[in-house]
Specification:
The chain is α+β, with helices and mostly antiparallel strands. The chain has two domains: 76-105 and 311-430, OmpA-like domain (60s Ribosomal Protein L30, Chain: A, 2-Layer Sandwich); 116-307, Jelly Rolls (Sandwich), CATH 2.60.120. The protein contains six helices and 19 strands. The protein has helices at residues 2-69, 76-85, 312-318, 341-353, 371-393, 417-423; strands at residues 116-121, 135-137, 141-144, 153-156, 161-164, 173-181, 193-199, 215-221, 225-232, 235-243, 251-259, 262-267, 270-275, 287-292, 299-307, 321-324, 359-364, 400-406, 425-430. Helix 2 (76-85) packs antiparallel against helix 4 (341-353). The longest helix has 68 residues, at 2-69. It is globular, with a radius of gyration of 31 Å.
């Protein structure tokens, strides 16, 4: 037994002697790595501190510059440059009320709605549970309300066509806009929707089968992408796609701008596509069409089609009056919505190029609601427009006066949704 125990002891000592150098090497490596990591961390912290100091110095410099500029009148040169570069400044006048969110600026958002509204539907005149009478479908849908998003919405439920019954051919230049809420059900995540701009027979929605009409462009929106394909005489031509993530239970703004063959597509305040030959040449377009794919069931509202790009410079400077429908507000609110940026940018450019021109801004409403409330709302909206032009585009506030006319000066009968949309407007009068 002693001999056996002694053997075990010798073997153990031998193994320890062999493994000791390896263990020491491992320890050295661990210590070296620890030291390297500590040094790197110290370097990173030092760099971060220096960057933070530099950032704080830049911000402090900008703040001091803004403070020194507050209340001062912008020069002609700085005003024009700020408008071109979309530099946000604060004149210190007509500041928004405490807690009021300011208009966000988007330097590449150049969408400007058409000048004349030719079709509008927010489904406010459709009973809950009904399908709107000014639309056509071979599927299923109904007008609903939600607890999260105000107003009425058309819920598209089945795979099939959904067509607003517009009248006649669209002009060479026109715009289409609508709001869309993505599917809210857990088993219907995201969106799978096609939107067509078509040249075809309005009375025969099945014309062309899977490629509707005789020519057009199909724009598709999936959960993770947006794509387009144009076609004519049954053949596909140009196509493209872009990664775009759609969240469930979220409201999006879709905008389309056709200028002859050119097609620009916007999602919220982002230009998704700008296609020089997006619309096949030689066709008159007259049909707008939704289709569904997969199992999604989106909601749409505030569907608006308008004709013609407004000539802001000629209207305001030469004719002395500019009527615009491209400045948007929340319902019963004076808050200017972000999608107004393209229109405000264009107006600011005209004012910057003509620094001696002064204007009076008038707000107008439709006849829905109380007369006194509409008058007050129109005045507040005009003041909000002035504030945005001054604050975000450096237009001197002293060049702008404001007033509101409420529902007192309609330019169309308040007898349908399209005419009411014409009466909801902002006017600029040259003084």
């Amino acid at each position: 037994m002693k001999t056996l125990a002694g053997s075990y002891l010798l073997i153990s000592l031998s193994l320890l002697a062999v493994s000791a150098p390896a263990q020491i090497l491992d320890i050295r490596r661990a210590v070296r790595n620890k030291v390297i990591n500590k040094v790197n961390n110290n370097i990173d912290q030092s760099i971060d501190k220096q960057l933070n100091k530099a950032e704080e110095a830049i911000i402090d410099s900008i703040n001091k510059k803004n403070e020194s500029d507050t209340g001062e009148k912008a020069t002609e040169e700085s005003t024009g440059q700020a408008a071109k570069e979309n530099v946000s400044t604060n004149s210190g006048q007509d500041a928004p009320k405490s807690g009021q969110e300011s208009l966000k600026t988007y330097s590449k958002y150049d969408f400007i709605p058409g000048e004349k509204v030719i079709f509008f539907d927010d489904f406010s005149q459709t009973e809950i549970g009904d399908f709107p009478v000014s639309w056509n479908t071979n599927g299923s849908g109904e007008v609903i309300t939600t607890n999260l998003f105000p107003g009425k919405w058309l819920q598209i439920k089945d795979q099939g066509f959904y067509i607003p019954e517009t009248t006649g051919d669209f002009p060479d230049n026109f715009t289409v806009e609508f709001d869309c809420i993505t599917a809210t059900s857990a088993d219907k995540s995201g969106i799978d929707m096609g939107f067509y701009i078509i040249s075809g027979n309005m009375k025969d929605p099945t014309e062309g089968g899977a490629i509707p009409g005789v020519a057009g462009n199909k724009i598709s929106f999936g959960e993770y992408s947006a794509s387009f394909t144009n076609y004519s005489d049954g053949s596909y031509m140009i196509s493209g796609s872009r990664d775009t993530k759609f969240e469930i239970n979220t409201e999006y703004r879709f905008s389309f701008w056709v200028q002859k063959q050119r097609l620009r597509i916007y999602l919220n305040e982002t230009k998704v596509f700008d296609i020089p030959k997006g619309m096949p040449e030689g066709f008159k377009y007259n049909i707008l069409r939704f289709e569904l794919g997969g199992e999604t069931s989106p909601f749409i509202s505030n569907f608006r089609v308008a004709a013609g790009l407004p000539d802001m410079r000629n209207k305001l400077i030469t004719e002395g009056k500019l009527v615009t429908y491209g400045i948007y507000f929340d319902v019963n609110s004076d808050k200017v919505k972000p999608e107004s940026f393209g229109t405000l940018k264009g107006i600011a450019a005209v004012l910057s190029e003509n620094p001696t021109v002064k204007v009076k801004i008038f707000g107008h409403t439709d006849s829905d609601g109380n007369d006194a409330a509409n008058l007050d709302l129109s005045k507040r909206r005009a003041a909000s427009v002035k504030n945005e032009l001054s604050k975000n585009f450096a237009i001197d506030a002293s060049r702008m006066e404001t007033d509101g006319k409420g529902e007192s000066q309609p330019i169309a009968p308040n007898d349908n949704l399209t005419n009411k949309a014409l009466n909801r407007r902002v006017e600029f009068i040259k003084l």
